């Protein structure tokens, strides 16, 4: 849910369609909060370069000294950066500002960078927050304002203040090592809790959810090095480390905090600056007398220590202090900020995946950990939180009728439980596959197995309604390490020569799930040749299951311009009654810490009255920019394609925008809606279609739990079609939560839809039903999906565009691209061939 200074579309009532029900939510009602004014202060702490976690300790030490006479029992809260709030005014004198000296006896604080433990804390009056205005905002009596936003921020900081002094803090989440699990490669996952103060209809709520994040495993460095390098024991490293190993370790350890163990009680902490290229026994330096010796010799002489692992490199701290790894321990509680590898991600998902009832119980346990009950800060501010999950009104929308080919008896039906299968059904419009070829990149697969697979595949395609003219495509064996460009061009020629027709598809058999080969195939086929490719894993070749072949058929049919299924016109009147275009947009950013690679914007647009076929457009733009810079020209391209496809201009535009965070709503509304308008006017000065702009959000922490087992689906989640548009939504704007999919595992996450511009005057029922029904015609699945398909397709297009970069090193998961400047980065992305942009090549 989003709070912004801009006023968006007012809620036109609540929806009425569907079966009424009630669900538990992970929102907890705030039964009282301060009604008087809250005093706001600016806080600065010197030295400013100290790590932010230290600032909380400085404030705590200041509190423990009773605020050096100014707090006098006043429970002031601090956000760890620069804001403090108190229910009573602090006596700061006529200047309204004071400075205090604070001494912190903390190992981390003793470092020179952190001022040797001596800090200056300055408090300056910033203003007052009128909490009554927040109350009026919740009642829908006043618009959002800076004061309202600051009041909500204050409540957020108030509930975070105590937990932040006790637990590892990341944003709005707190993590404890009590329930940690190991991950491969020297990492571990910690369980924790997310909490946030949220405005609802007439009330404030606390949104509380379980959360998990990866931390670096703490402990002795030699033990961790074994894990980082994927070895079984330290003995495998006795012959020394390769340069590549040392580089990998340096990348892993640089910037992390270590603690030394060779000085008895004096366990000083340092930050790793780098590693020595040579091992401890061959890393030499001169002592104070000018005698040259190795680090191993020095530790023998100075500390009487014979190094057990002299073959490991040394840790370098500060400028040139060398420490053998065996006297270093990694400090606990350091968050892993790098992108997790495949195995780590898979294990992380296993750990965090919890059934709805398990998750709900965990959330209830979090109430005690986060200390809402006996919290002196909350008590002094007269803030109380109801300890039960809020029960909210919901509705389960009726399931739509979906249509495959009308020639089969059950061509049109209403799926049960949000999923179905293809038995007895044919594709609504099957494409014709005549000119194609197969490339086998998996040397382990014998030719007879491939021939058998192709036979089964063709039969399934025909049974499912895709017309295969050539059942014996040319098959080529190729080297996965070889020249992929030449291989695919040869396959293209073979396909054309065999069928005496323009090639339509190259079918590729891959040896494994690795990214590099897949990425290169897609780059060449999408941007060099301009032909769809269908990749399959070699493990599926030997036992060509009908179900698998049918799933492949769904993808191939869409890539060739066919249509798999549709909704009948009476079910989507907004689209079928007048020419209407549905657009989806998303921006994806490079992985955390990569400040070089550009962001990718993708827009998809429906090309027919059934909203089944989509065209797409891609742009690369500056790193981490959220607003789509070139949206106008992308929309213009897609409007032209719609006109070519339908012979009409769309009279209405429905735009689903994914990937926007709460703080960017107003900028998106002012800039992107205007770009869409300008694109229309640039085609024709009198062309003004009506525009509805809906932001789609998956990254939120609202979860719903069925009240009774009979209300749940098979996975224990709420039924598909569950919609919530009251109580825990925005106090007065047009937004709703929709859980459109059936749960598979874990707790389902509803999608949040927020209307920020609406010329089409949608009622809640109209928009909710249209959005829900569209979720049933996502082309490559036989189940309703969790996010409206145009936005889902935009996400796929943007993800695919990452593979279109020339010279990308896909084999190194941590590779960054420092060697190129931003302009070269953008230029290194190749453009998708125009003929492919009109079909769904990215499926």
UniProtKB/TrEMBL annotation:
<dbReference type="InterPro" id="IPR014811">
    <property type="entry name" value="ArgoL1"/>
</dbReference>
<dbReference type="Pfam" id="PF08699">
    <property type="entry name" value="ArgoL1"/>
</dbReference>
<feature type="domain" description="Piwi">
    <location>
        <begin position="505"/>
        <end position="806"/>
    </location>
</feature>
<dbReference type="InterPro" id="IPR032474">
    <property type="entry name" value="Argonaute_N"/>
</dbReference>
<dbReference type="InterPro" id="IPR036397">
    <property type="entry name" value="RNaseH_sf"/>
</dbReference>
<dbReference type="GO" id="GO:0003723">
    <property type="term" value="F:RNA binding"/>
</dbReference>
<dbReference type="InterPro" id="IPR032472">
    <property type="entry name" value="ArgoL2"/>
</dbReference>
<comment type="similarity">
    <text>Belongs to the argonaute family.</text>
</comment>
<dbReference type="Pfam" id="PF02170">
    <property type="entry name" value="PAZ"/>
</dbReference>
<protein>
    <submittedName>
        <fullName>Piwi domain-containing protein</fullName>
    </submittedName>
</protein>
<dbReference type="Pfam" id="PF16486">
    <property type="entry name" value="ArgoN"/>
</dbReference>
<feature type="domain" description="PAZ">
    <location>
        <begin position="220"/>
        <end position="332"/>
    </location>
</feature>
<dbReference type="InterPro" id="IPR045246">
    <property type="entry name" value="Piwi_ago-like"/>
</dbReference>
<dbReference type="Pfam" id="PF16488">
    <property type="entry name" value="ArgoL2"/>
</dbReference>
<dbReference type="InterPro" id="IPR012337">
    <property type="entry name" value="RNaseH-like_sf"/>
</dbReference>
<dbReference type="Pfam" id="PF16487">
    <property type="entry name" value="ArgoMid"/>
</dbReference>
<dbReference type="InterPro" id="IPR036085">
    <property type="entry name" value="PAZ_dom_sf"/>
</dbReference>
<dbReference type="InterPro" id="IPR003165">
    <property type="entry name" value="Piwi"/>
</dbReference>
<dbReference type="InterPro" id="IPR003100">
    <property type="entry name" value="PAZ_dom"/>
</dbReference>
<dbReference type="Pfam" id="PF02171">
    <property type="entry name" value="Piwi"/>
</dbReference>
<dbReference type="InterPro" id="IPR032473">
    <property type="entry name" value="Argonaute_Mid_dom"/>
</dbReference>
């Amino acid at each position: 849910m989003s709070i912004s200074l801009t006023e968006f579309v007012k809620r036109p009532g609540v929806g009425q369609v569907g079966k009424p029900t009630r669900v538990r939510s992970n929102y907890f009602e705030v039964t009282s909060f301060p009604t008087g004014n809250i005093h706001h202060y600016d806080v600065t702490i010197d030295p400013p370069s100290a790590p932010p976690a230290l600032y909380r300790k400085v404030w705590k030490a200041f509190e423990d000294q009773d605020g050096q006479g100014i707090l006098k029992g006043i429970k002031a809260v601090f956000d760890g950066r620069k804001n403090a709030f108190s229910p009573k005014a602090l006596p700061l004198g006529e200047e309204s500002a004071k400075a205090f000296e604070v001494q912190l006896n903390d190992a981390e604080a003793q470092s020179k960078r952190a001022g040797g433990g001596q800090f200056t804390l300055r408090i300056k009056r910033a203003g007052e927050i009128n909490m009554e205005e927040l109350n009026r905002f919740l009642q829908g009596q006043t618009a959002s304002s800076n004061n309202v936003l600051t009041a909500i921020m204050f409540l957020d900081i108030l509930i975070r203040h105590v937990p932040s002094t006790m637990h590892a803090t990341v944003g709005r989440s707190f993590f404890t090592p009590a329930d940690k699990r190991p991950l491969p490669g020297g990492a571990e996952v910690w369980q924790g809790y997310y909490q946030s103060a949220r405005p609802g209809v007439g009330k404030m709520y606390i949104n509380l959810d379980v959360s998990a994040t990866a931390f670096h495993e703490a402990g002795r460095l030699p033990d961790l090095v074994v894990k980082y390098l994927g070895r079984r024991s330290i003995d495998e490293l006795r012959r020394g480390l390769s340069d590549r190993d040392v580089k990998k370790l340096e990348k892993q350890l640089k910037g992390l905090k270590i603690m030394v163990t060779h000085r008895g009680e004096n366990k000083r902490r340092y930050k790793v600056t780098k590693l020595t290229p040579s091992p401890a026994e061959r890393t030499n330096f001169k002592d104070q007398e000018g005698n040259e010796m190795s680090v191993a010799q020095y530790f023998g002489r100075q500390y009487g220590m014979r190094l057990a692992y002299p073959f490991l490199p040394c840790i370098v701290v500060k400028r040139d202090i060398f420490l053998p790894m065996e006297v270093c321990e990694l400090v606990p509680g350091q968050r892993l900020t790098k992108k997790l590898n495949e195995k780590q991600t898979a294990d992380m998902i296993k750990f965090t995946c919890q059934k709805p009832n398990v998750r709900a119980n965990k959330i209830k346990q979090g109430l005690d950990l986060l200390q809402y009950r006996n919290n002196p800060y909350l008590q002094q501010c007269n803030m109380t939180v109801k300890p039960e999950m809020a029960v909210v009104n919901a509705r389960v929308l009726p399931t739509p009728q979906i249509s495959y080919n009308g020639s089969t008896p059950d061509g049109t039906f209403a799926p049960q439980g949000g999923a179905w299968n293809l038995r007895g059904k044919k594709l609504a419009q099957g494409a014709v596959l005549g000119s194609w070829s197969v490339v086998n990149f998996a040397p382990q697969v014998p030719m007879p197995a491939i021939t058998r697979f192709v036979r089964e595949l063709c039969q399934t395609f025909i049974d499912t309604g895709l017309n295969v003219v050539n059942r014996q495509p040319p098959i080529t064996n190729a080297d996965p390490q070889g020249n992929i460009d030449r291989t695919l061009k040869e396959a293209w020629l073979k396909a054309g020569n065999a069928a005496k027709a323009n090639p339509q598809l190259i079918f590729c058999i891959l040896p494994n799930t690795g990214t590099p080969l897949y990425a290169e195939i897609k780059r060449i086929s999408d941007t060099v040749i301009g032909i769809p490719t269908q990749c399959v894993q070699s493990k599926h070749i030997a036992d060509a299951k009908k179900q698998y072949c049918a799933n492949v058929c769904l993808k191939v049919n869409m890539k060739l311009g066919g249509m798999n299924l549709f909704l009948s016109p009476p079910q989507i009147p907004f689209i079928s009654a007048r020419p209407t275009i549905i657009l989806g947009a998303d921006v994806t950013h490079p992985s955390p810490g990569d400040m070089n690679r550009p962001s990718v914007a993708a827009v998809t647009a429906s090309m027919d009255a059934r909203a089944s076929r989509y065209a797409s457009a891609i742009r690369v733009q500056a790193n981490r920019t959220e607003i789509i810079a070139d949206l106008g020209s992308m929309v213009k391209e897609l409007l032209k394609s719609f006109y070519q496809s339908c012979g009409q201009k769309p009279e209405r535009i429905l735009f689903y925008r994914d990937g926007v965070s709460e703080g960017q709503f107003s900028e998106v509304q002012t800039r992107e809606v205007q770009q869409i308008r300008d694109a229309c006017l640039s085609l024709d000065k009198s062309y003004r279609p009506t525009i509805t702009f809906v932001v789609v959000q998956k990254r939120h922490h609202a979860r719903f739990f069925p009240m009774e087992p009979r209300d749940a689906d098979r996975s224990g989640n709420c039924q598909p079609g569950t919609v919530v548009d009251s109580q825990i939504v925005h106090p007065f704007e047009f937004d709703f939560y929709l859980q459109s999919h059936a749960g598979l595992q874990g707790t389902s996450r509803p999608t949040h839809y927020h209307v920020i511009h609406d010329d089409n005057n949608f009622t809640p029922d109209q928009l909710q039903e249209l959005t829900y029904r569209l979720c049933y015609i996502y082309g490559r699945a036989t189940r309703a999906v969790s996010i409206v398909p145009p936005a889902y397709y935009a996400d796929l297009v943007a993800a695919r565009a990452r593979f279109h970069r020339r010279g990308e090193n896909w084999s190194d998961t941590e590779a960054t691209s420092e060697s190129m400047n931003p302009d070269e980065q953008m230029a290194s992305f190749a453009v998708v061939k125009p003929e492919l942009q009109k079909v769904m090549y990215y499926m």
